[in-house]
Sequence to fold (336 residues):
Amino acid sequence: MDPVRDTLDRPLRDLRISVTDRCDFRCVYCMPKEVFGRDFEFLRRSQLLTFEEITRLARLFAASGVRKLRLTGGEPLLRRDLERLIEMLAAIDGIEDIALTTNGSLLARKAASLRDAGLRRVTVSLDSLDDAVFGAVNDVGAPVGRVLEGIEAAAAAGLGPVKVNMVVKRGLNDASVLGMARHFRGSGHILRLIEFMDVGASNGWRLDDVVPAAELVETIAAEWPLEPVDPAYAGEVAARYRYRDGGGEIGVIASVTQPFCHACTRARLSADGRLYTCLFANVGRDLRGPLRAGADDAEIEALIGRIWGRRGDRYSELRTAETARAPKIEMSYIGG
Ligand code: SAM
Fold:
């Protein structure tokens, strides 16, 4: 089956599904406490897509070309019985891969059941190995050790190679890059360094805070020489490098300094059923409404096809100082 294609001829291949907008961390670059405090109104249960609704949509996305699903949030492991959703998604025809992005806080106890349900891979976010730095990033005092346990449990459960995502913000955790590289070299896990992005409306993004991927690669290569590796598949967002001494590989995601919009095949479904065709969008299209109003499969599939068919987003390739300042939908809502 041919996937639907957008105005720039990009096929729809990946769907990121946010299963909750809640998180147990308050990472300063994503869900700062000043905004996501006690008074913040998260989605109510009735607003969230049910597992049945998510599965139905995922099936219609698969019919439109999607092959890969990624569950995200918020913190996806906070959604109760997530394993049941994974089982339902794993049974969809055409879905070849189901992955999950998590902060790792609940992963150690859930890794085996996630794998049994049909999850294939996990990406764990971790921004430093230094408890003081990590605590300043997550802002709830979550310890590094708990996340490391989650990573090891995931690998032991067969969810590897585990990718470890580190968002680097100048002055916050850039001094932790070499320590992270040292720790994950030779571990079988793949460290991925991510440029701090201008998503959302509340993280006070400034270009000066971005550590360019080229600088990150140079810093690591000065210690342990690196060489580039070809992408594993078309449209891979991380540029890959391997340690020349056989210590494994790293990836860098340069969405600010080397945007990859031209190869972006990703759609995003928010926890309340809005479809976003770009991480930096500020409007999404409601799918939950038609779903709950009784639209049939053909109607919803046609709607998905129309939304994707009109897509022309290439935000990062066209970013200007002005668009970078403009408010966008929060990453915790749309799913990273
Ligand atoms: N709670 C899960 C987690 O921590 O991985 C999943 C959701 S989180 C929004 C997904 C990813 O987005 C994390 O790796 C996080 O570090 C990253 N992220 C959040 N805000 C970002 C920003 N401003 N720039 C770059 N990455 C960001």
Remarks:
- The first strand starts at residue 14 and ends at 18.
- Residues 23, 29-30, 72-73, 75, 101-103, 125, 165, 167, 194, 196-197, 199, 203, 331-332, 336 surround S-adenosylmethionine (CB under 6 Å).
